[in-house]
Here is the input.
Amino acid sequence: MDFHLTAEESAFREEVRAFLARELTPEIFKAHRDLNEQGMWTPEFTKAFRRKLGAAGYIGMGWPKEYGGGGRSRVYQALFWDEMEYHRAPGLDRSITYVPNAIMAMGSEAQKAKFLPQIIRGELSWFVGYSEPEAGSDLANLKTRAVEDGDDFIITGQKAFSSDAHMADYGWVATRTDPNSTKHRGMTMFIVDMKSPGVTVSKYPTLAGWTHHAVYFDQVRVPRSMMVGEKDQGWKVIMGAIDFERAALSSSGLLDYQFDRLLSWCKQERAGGGRKIDDPLVQDNLIRSAIEVEGARLMNYWLASLHARGLRPQHETSLALLVKRETARLLDISGMELLGPYAPLRAGSPWAQLEGEVETEYRDHLYFQFAAGGFDITRNVVATRGLGLPR
Here is the structure.
């Protein structure tokens, strides 16, 4: 493939950059950043900004026109996601990335008509209910039950690691409808209105400093019309949605931001004279990091090119996400090494370098090693689904 952008694609990237620079000024960062939130922005500002993205036409630009989208190549979507990550913009999450793609691919026509117009306007927030206290990487071990009751299902159970559940309008929730079947069968996916009676959201602090959430379902009644796909065939829906999820999460914008920030800091004149970048060991560190970042970027756009050709990549999405997140952890470590004695200083310390962002990200990105499959699980996916190796 040709890794160079066309003139139109380059112009679009500059348009997005100008939009984000205009909307996310230093004053806006100061007023609305919140390190207690996983997305590092206040929920109110996140929702408001998502609506701005919808008004600007950036949500759904890669959707088919039949669903109200722009019909553009997925390369444009990848460029948008990259710039959003690079500028640390709020709202780039499941609510505008993989949940709507999963609805388009596997939802009913009624579900598409109900949800897609609201999503494309940036009006809905979602949480994904996969993980449970006893079902993390082993997702097929989930226990949350959905029992038929006339035209409804009654859901009872608990979901853990429920990112942004406290601000969600709807949940994309995996359940077990046949407890007597084999683990990968008897599962069914539902869309759950978070205002339904019986839904409770709790919170707890994480090592990264932000608050995470758990969701409890106590006899929650969900209409049959909100079942996604066929009853007891939810594993296929989950796997299809996860492929969309990993494709969205593989954006390389975060890596570019991390590297550019470190490079700029190393070029600065130090108080005692000299620059970090003049040290050959620092140069070697930066060069190695730059190579890894470029490799992750090319893999991300290779993945976008597969989508642009109408393909549905599977193990390729896992590979791209693995490379992105391992590179992010490499940059976290490099940043801590380069900052030296300043590295452990957190935001707010008068001596913290780069506003304490490197230390915050080092703790924050620990979840990269297990979320959305984790490093080892992702390698297993690539080995079995991509290389055909035995389990």
